[in-house]
Design a protein that fits this description.
mainly beta; four-stranded antiparallel β-sheet; two-stranded antiparallel sheet; 6 strands; 0% helix
């Protein structure tokens, strides 16, 4: 069995496969409504908010759409 985990800056995903079989992708990421999504990738965002913001952060599709956002930015230098 091979398990692949892609932790990206924008989105992340997980897949697995046995021997020469086609990979299976994890879907069903939990959303804010509690219903599973059908997406292969989930947002890599973390949200620390609410009354217990440091005890129980939200991530992925459970992050509110309009939180105060702090993000990493990658800058590519000219000529690289």
């Amino acid at each position: 069995m091979v398990i692949a985990i892609d932790l990206g800056n924008i989105s992340s995903g997980v897949a697995w496969a046995f021997d020469n079989n086609e990979p299976k992708f994890v879907t069903g990421w939990e959303t804010r409504s509690g219903a599973p999504s059908t997406e292969v990738n989930v947002s890599s965002a973390l949200y620390y908010g609410g009354s217990n913001k440091y005890d129980n952060p939200e991530w992925g599709f459970k992050v509110p759409h309009d939180p105060e956002v702090l993000t990493w930015q990658f800058v590519q230098r000219a000529g690289t």
